[in-house]
Amino acid sequence: MTVLLLSHQWKAFWRSRSTGKSIAIQIFTGFITLYLLSIALFLGFSLPTFLMKFFPGQNIVTVFCGFILYYFALDIVFRFLLQDLPALAVQPYLAQNIKRRELVHFLNLRSLFSFFNLLPLVLFVPFSISAIGHQYGSYTALAFVVVILSLCIFNHFIILFIKRKTGISIGWLVGFFALVVLFILGDYFSVFSLTKISAVLFIALLKMPWLCGVAVLLAIAAFYNNSIFLNNNLYLEEMTKAGRQKESAEYTWLQKFGNTGDLFAIDLKLILRNKRPRSLLLLSFIFLLYGFILYKPGYLNKDQLGFVLLGGIFITGIFIVNYGQFLFAWQSTHFDGLMASNIYIKTYIQSKFVLLTAFSTVALLLSLSYGFINWKIIPIQIAAYFFNVGINIVITAYFATRSYKGLDLSKGATFNYQGIGAVQWLYSLFILIAGAAIYLPFALLINSWAGIIAIGTLGLISFLLRDWWIDILTKQFIQRKYQILQGFREK
Amino acid sequence: MITVNSISKAYSRKIAVDINKLHIARGEMLGLVGNNGAGKTTFFRLLLDLVKADRGEILSKEKNVSNSEDWKSYTASYLDDGFLISYLTPEEYFYFIGKLNNRSKADVDEFLKTFEAFFDGSILQSGKYIRDLSKGNQFKVGITSCLLQHPQIIILDEPFANLDPSSQIRLKNMLKDEHEKNCTTIIISSHDLNHITDVCTRILLMEKGIIIKDMQAASDTLRELEEYFQVSTNTISPSATN
User: Fold this and answer.
1) What global pTM score does this model have?
2) d(CA A19, CA A31)
3) Pseudo-torsion of CA B19, B25, B28, B32, nearest 10°?
4) A124, A143 in Cβ contact below 8 A?
5) In chain B, what residues touch A331 (CB-CB under 8 Å)?
6) Which A residues, 333 through 362, put their C-beta within 8 Å of a C-beta on chain B?
7) Do B85 and A248 lie within an 8 Å CB cutoff?
């Protein structure tokens, strides 16, 4: 039975509209996946060499041991953001003569086919076998492989459980994020070190390979926990959440802005009530933490600000890029209606500008707290903000007037290539080039701060010219209106 | 009110609409009939400037609809669920459309009260987003949002198709009322010959993008139309159904 169900999934994958849509995108995704996997495999095999290079004089196995837990901690966060719940796949079968236990079994098995489960195997197993097997014997190597497999499965099922829980109650979501932020802060400010904990645990494993049983138990516990939860919650209504009462919401504070405010409210509801834009919003919040990676004291003290600026642009601009790449396409399913109702096109474009600026401003305000690390971050962050609201938004809107592909709001965001065409890839590149083209000449000829000032000033000037930009974009939009409409109508 | 000057639109060489001259006067109730592919929906899209005409122009109050946005303020339309914002509740959608046409929330609430029978308790306070409503109820939301605008022109594509019988009759009465009270120009299409001859004062019969008959509704209009469709099924069906 499970095999039969899995074969249906196989068909569903190959026959889905988004997969079958364009052979080019399929080949592209295939290549990217293959590329990533081969890089991982290469890394896996050359890990000993790399470790020896980067950590000269240290025992590479010890270094490796310190790294494992770090990887799986990151893995949890990425899984939370990117891993899909295969819940809906089971819906057509619920009313059929199939035992519930079998369906749960199928859901669990089906979920295992994920890129995230392949990656650690490719990355770590070669090393475990070659380096550890070489030094500590094949039993220890086997224990390592077992631990890595178990951790992988543990992460997999625990995140499925957490994701299902967070889908039901907001408390779990807040709790999960609070925990992640605490871990990141704790590690950044060296309250504790994940590396050291990891090293201690895995070096113990080297000495006592039987400890791998603990990891296996953890994995089994996570698996059963998830199965029991699924078994008790395998009802149609909860799966689709159709039973939940939908409330009307009025954002009265937006009403004083006239039709621009009304359109803004519609966009806000679009983001909050649909899966794909909602996960993009979540992703943008995660990107706020990017500063902990790029705002290194080393760069700041030496006034090498390129990376810090890049971080600033990411943090205040990620929403503009993520949401703006489908600026109009988000509304493709009701674009006919929008264009036929009493909205002036200029007002429509204006509302998009306001929306992107608002989100960028929120990101700026939140990220200003990085100033506690170093005051220099604040002016850089503000310059990056002006680049984003002044220049990035204009580029975004311009590319949006040239994007004729619609998309389906209800699908998840990750590995979803629906609505993505050459324009989108070009566009992200274009923004990075635009930023570099302004910053680099000044930074190289004078100094980093001159580059920052240049980017901030140009951004501000462009921001002040906003009405002029909107007029130009409105003309661009009107020229391509029919093409956009036709593209959005073809689903 | 609306003047069509030799407009034509083709999709990959197949003619969708080709109308030489058509004038629609204020307060007319115009019905479009014709088999699938006759070009009714494309004609509506041309009226609403949603597709680009290959040649010709459509004037609404003497202004070309593709050069001016003025028509938007007095034209209300509902062609398909592509006009509804799927992730809003029906109330939110009505308030939104109301706001766009300068009608306050209280105004809209007052207006919606008269629709209680039409909604039959399954639209307002249903606790659903529009995307979760049935096709028929979605249509009701779309039609109501048109009437809510107090427009001078209403354009509806097959409004009777998804409604239950009592709603169809209610809709007919609502359209007639609206026309009587405000002298609204109403343009609808339908496959239901009974309804359309009952509501409309003028019927356009379309075939392959061309208006082949333009008749003022009279007592024998229904019979004439029935004759046409009878004949056309006899003659066309072997080749048209492939």
Assistant:
1) 0.71
2) 15
3) 0
4) no
5) 85
6) 333-337, 339-345
7) no
